[in-house]
Design brief:
30 residues
Length: 30
């Protein structure tokens, strides 16, 4: 029953990590 929740949490975590990388890349360009 916890598989769905774990997968969703991992997906959200990856999205946040990618967002931080994207923001950092844009800041370094400026």
């Amino acid at each position: 029953a916890g598989d769905g929740t774990t997968t969703a949490t991992m997906l959200v975590g990856n999205m946040i990590k990618n967002a931080h990388k994207h923001i950092a890349a844009q800041r370094s360009r400026m």
